Amino acid sequence: MKVAKTKITILVDDQAGNELVAEHGLSLWIETEGKCILFDTGQGSALENNARVLGIDLQKTDILVLSHGHNDHTGGIPRILRQTRSADVYGHPGIMLPRYRFKNGMAEPIQIPGRSMEAIDELPLERLHWVQIPTILSDKIGLTGPIPRKTSFEDTGGSFYLDPQGTRPDPIEDDLALWIRTDEGVIVCVGCAHAGLVNTLNHVRRLNGGLRIRAVIGGFHLLNAGRERLDQTIIALQKAEPDMVVPCHCTGELAVAVLRNALGERVLSGAAGMIFLF
């Protein structure tokens, strides 16, 4: 009988199971290689309730990874850092930038909340790790660092800017992913895949000597994707042949349906409370 070496729980998502709180955000709880890793924190209001219901002790967090600096992924930072006095925090320095999304012609601030910035600023320097290149967390766990944008059909997935006037487009260069190498391939965790899901998976494969993608879990940011982007993403996933594709958060219902139609039962629509054993 095989014993699971990696356990991933969707802790926060736009969808949620019984007794769990749904919110627009993402957080994954990862247990692997003897470490407890929290990948993003959602907006913060669902995190502690869902952890309690799921029997997850956030005080055991060894590593907090921040996929990028948007408020729906970083709002729970103060709660986590209050509960653990030893967790190391990893993220690109760009997470601290002011940022805006334009909706109906109006600028909406979406940067990391002020209280989260303060919690990061108060961290001892030895616990704060700025990720600007591919970074190894252990023999089998790594962070992509900034992801090269090589495809012609992928963009950040929205109207994002660094100023409220909308004159400085935000490329979201701080976007990064976490990967876990297993004997059967690489498991990839993405926050929103603002660099593009295909760019992300291709970069992870390059970092792992061409090893196959076993699973990908997280937000794919295909909510506003055009048909070409959806089609090209499906072609890339069909070629990669992952065992499991778990779209969450910002993927969009239409994109999930298209993915499922093309890839079949390998596609599992994500929701808080779902647990995956590898």
Can you put this structure into words, describing what you see?
- By secondary structure, this protein is α/β, with parallel strands linked by helices.
- It has a single domain, classed as Metallo-beta-lactamase, Chain A (4-Layer Sandwich), CATH 3.60.15.
- The chain is 23% helix and 26% strand.
- The chain is built from seven helices and 16 strands.
- The protein has helices spanning 47-54, 71-74, 77-83, 114-121, 197-207, 227-240, 253-263, and strands spanning 6-12, 27-32, 35-39, 63-65, 88-91, 100-103, 106-109, 128-130, 135-138, 141-143, 160-161, 177-182, 185-190, 213-219, 244-248, 275-277.
- The strands form three sheets. A seven-stranded mixed beta sheet has the order 8-5-4-3-2-1-16, covered by helices on one side.
- The chain starts with 5 loop residues before the first strand and ends with a strand.
- The mean pLDDT is 96.
Provide the descriptors you would attach to this structure in a database record.
alpha/beta; seven-stranded mixed β-sheet; single chain; six-stranded mixed β-sheet; 16 strands; 278 residues
A few lines on this structure:
By secondary structure, the protein is α/β, with parallel strands linked by helices.
Determine Rg (CA atoms, Å): 17 Å
The chain-level structural class is alpha/beta
**Overall tally of domains:** 1
Largest sheet: 7 strands, mixed
Q: Judging from the principal axes of the Cα atoms, what is the shape?
A: globular
Counted beta strands: 16
The parts where pLDDT drops under 50 for at least 5 residues are: none
CATH class category label: Alpha Beta
What series of H and E elements makes up the topology?
EEEHEHHEEEHEEEEEEHEHEHE
- Tell me the CATH superfamily: Ribonuclease Z/Hydroxyacylglutathione hydrolase-like
Q: Architecture, CATH level 2?
A: 4-Layer Sandwich
Q: Order of strands across the widest beta sheet?
A: 8-5-4-3-2-1-16
The separation of the N and C termini measures 13 Å
